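tool_call: predict_structure(chain=1)
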Amino acid sequence: MPRKRKILREHILDAALNLMKEEGFHRFTARRIATHLNASTQPIYKEFKNMDDLKENLLEYVKEILEDKVFHLYSDQSDLTDVCVNYVLFASKERTLFSALFMDRELSVHSLHKHIQNTLHQIIQRTEGLEDTTEEDRQSLLDILWPAVHGFSVLTSQGIYNYSDEDIARKMGNIVSHSVKLYENKKSSIKRNLS
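tool_result:
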C-alpha cells in the first residue's frame, strides 16, 4: 500500500504565498494552490473552511514573515532606518507580492497596515535617540515618515523607481533623518506655543 503524503497547513500557506509571489491574486484559486502543492484541493479544504478562511490565515502568515524578514522584530540589530530600507528592498525584490499585499485589495490591507504601524512603534522605541518617545510622539513621527517610505516602496514595486540597494539605503537614511528633524521641529514649535 503506498504511503499517503501528509500536507500540513504550513505547506498550504507556503504554496499560497508562492503563488502570490508569482501571480498576485489574479489567478488565486484552490486549484492553482493545489497545483503548487502537487496535490488535489482536498488538503486545502480539509485545513481551511473556504478561500476566505485561507486568505485570513495567509494574511496572519504574511504578518509573521514581515516581522521576521523585513522588520527584524526579533533582533535587536535593526533600527528605524534599517527597517525602512528593508521595506523598500522587499518592494523591490518581491514586486508582485508587494503589489498583491498592498494594492490588490484581496486581503484586509487595513489590518496589514495597522499591524505594520504597531510594529513600527516597537522599532522606534529601540531606535537610538527615540527610545523615550510617547505613543503620541511615535505616531506623530510615523505620520511624517511612513507616507514617504510606503510611497517610495509602491513606486519601487511598480518599477518606476529602480535604484540600487546602496541608493535605496542612502535615500531611506535621508528620508528618516529629515522626518525625525521635522518631527522634532514640530514638537519644539508646539512647546514654544504652549509657553
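agent: The mean pLDDT is 90. Proceeding to next step.
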